[in-house]
Amino acid sequence: MRQLQIPAIIILFFLILNPLVLSAEPSGRYPVQIHGVYVGMPRDDFFKLYPHNKARTFLKRGEDEWLTFNDPLKEDFAGLLSFHIQNGKVQEWLTNSRKEAVREYLDEFCGPSGKVYMAIQNVLERIPFADFVTVTDRRRPVVFTEYYAGGTARFGNSSEIIASPEYAPAFENGFTLIKLSTALDDLAKSTAPIEGVIAHELAHRVLEHILKGNVSCDAEREANALVKKWGFAAEYQAARKIFGRKRGEPKSCREK
Fold first, then answer.
1. Mean pLDDT throughout 133-161?
2. Cβ 49 vs Cβ 33: under 8 Å
3. Class of 2-97 per CATH?
4. What angle separates helix 192-206 from helix 114-126, to the nearest 10 degrees?
5. Are 174 and 211 in contact (CB under 8 A)?
6. What does the domain layout of the chain look like in residue ranges?
């Protein structure tokens, strides 16, 4: 009997010290499932729980797909849930990863590159969650494009949004187009002043100035105030220093 008890005690002791042995997931990072989704779940079964047309953002590279949804999947949601599908099966998920949601969003709705792209990314990752949700709502998204400050393209150029059946529906309620000059990348040595410009334009959207027909100097001051409230006071000042009105140029709105 003693010979049988010894391995039983050892096994019990081992399980107490290693409670994940019987329940660990392949990565060791995830619970067994989340809202019915599990690692290895077939793509078709996943989309029965999370319909493709309900995705906030979508990114595809070959056999890899990343999708972010509202969490929970309804209007009064409080967070984000991002999934990675590879070779037709769920590989992993992230909860409330603003960085991942921004990465997917910019792949769909952003044209600029370089410092301008990084500045957009930084601003979207820093603004309050409620405002982030507003400006990245694909039913009325903010689209970032660029226009050329030099060469013959400064007289006319075009941008195109390419749609695919794989993408969730967008633009149901219109969109906001933020046009950013290529001069931003040329003049700014860092992303900070560009962030000041982008935060200002996003503030106009959050405050719905264009929708309300408010294009006054008061609207500009209100946008500047929101930019500072968001925590971009230093970036705002950097933008004013580099991109603000220069001597001899027409007068612009001034802070009171």
1. 91
2. no
3. alpha beta
4. 50
5. no
6. 2-97, 110-243
